[in-house]
Amino acid sequence: MRFWGRKRTASGPKGLWAGFVDIHAHLLPGVDDGVPDWQRCLALLDACEAKGWKAVCLTPHVMEDMPNATARLQRLFDELQVRYQGRLSLHLAAEYMLDLLFEERLEKKDFLPLAKNRVLVETSCYQSSLFFDRLLEKTLSAGYFPVLAHPERYAYLTEAEYARLKEKRVGFQLNLPSLVGFYGREIQKRSKWLLRQGMYTYAGTDTHSFAAWERLVEAKDLERHAECLLPLIENNKQLFENE
Fold first, then answer.
1. Which of 119, 166, 207, 208 lies at 20 to 30 Å from 38 by C-alpha?
2. Backbone angles phi, psi at 148, to 5 degrees
């Protein structure tokens, strides 16, 4: 699919995607490893709209290696709302690495929650972080509910640790690409297990590029999991009701 001219080629509303609300997408241009420019950002939003989506929450990375200032992200989002002329409802949040920068922002209340006091957070995919439990507890103590992005990608977490996090009221956000093997077979298996166990609260695309988005929305395997996915998709919608 080309970007030039923002051509609308996606099919109409169908299945899981009809009325979909994406709570995890790296579409704010030029701020992280997501889309690099306005042209690709707007092309993706047009494609989401053509697919029948209802809303997209833009969640740029914020971490010590990408210390995106809240004010800068807000300015870019304000510009996006001027540039984008479609029907999607757009929201701004961020995906926060559980590191010292997040702790600093949390203490200053200088951060962008998803909605209804939910904060999208992540941790290292490769090894357990010294800050993980402490910052989750600190987030809860501050009156916010952490939503852990793509927990299936943290291979070092055990079944008991997943259960412990759920008991602490940490929400889990499934990366839909995990279910269809985008990150490898082991992560796919783990995501299916977590889904069967009813561990997930929300589902997102974690879109970083047009090619990845197109591959996901055309994946037929997702429909096999529709019964388990529909409650998560409904939770996504309820999260942004009246926002």
1. 119
2. -80, 115
Q: In the prediction, which pLDDT does 13 show?
A: 42
User: For 35, which DSSP code?
Assistant: -
Asked whether the whole model's pTM tops 0.85, one would answer yes
Give me the pLDDT at residue 28, please: 98
DSSP state letter for 16: G
Distance CA 12, CA 102 (A): 39
Strands 55-58 and 89-92: what pairing? parallel
- Using alpha carbons, select from 101, 33, 108 the residue that is nearest to residue 64: 101
Cα–Cα dist 193/127, whole Å: 21
Which three-class secondary structure state does DSSP give residue 6? helix
Q: Report how far residue 55's alpha carbon sits from residue 180's, in angstroms, rounded to the nearest whole number.
A: 23
Secondary structure class of 178 (helix, strand, coil): helix
- In the chain the domains, ranked by start, together with CATH numbers, are 16-239 (3.20.20.140)
Low pLDDT (below 70) residues in the chain: 1-14
The first and second tokens of residue 85, run together, are 């002329």
3-class SS shares of the chain: helix, strand, coil, % to 5: 45, 15, 40
Q: How far is CA 92 from the centre of its chain?
A: 11
User: What distance in Å separates the CA atoms of residue 133 and residue 102, rounded to the nearest whole number?
Assistant: 13
Which residue's structure tokens are 């209802």? 54
